[in-house]
Design brief:
mainly beta; 0% helix; 4-stranded antiparallel sheet; 11 strands; 115 residues
Length: 115
Amino acid sequence: QVQLVESGGGLVQPGGSLRLSCAATGSGFSLYAMGWYRQAPGKQRELVATITSRYVTNYADSAKGRFTISRDNAKNTVYLQINSLKPEDTAVYYCNTNRGIYNYWGQGTQVTVSS
């Protein structure tokens, strides 16, 4: 069983930065890819970035240049650094990992970008 707990969201002004964290419980963290998704009000959940067990990263076009995904296997944690935040980045950000037939999600952390 895997539990994912996100943190680090909040209210930030345009142009600001945030670092989101996702702590995973259970074993095997280092063996699996991790991902960040987001869901804005009235929109579908969308992929933001992924990182494999070998630290290969992939970003949605909308995330390239301002978002950085990273992981610390010693802490069972994956991070999402977001710079130059824009109002359109406002969303609930979710952590995800897929292990075969099991797909795990965290509860999400709210990011609101507003002046």
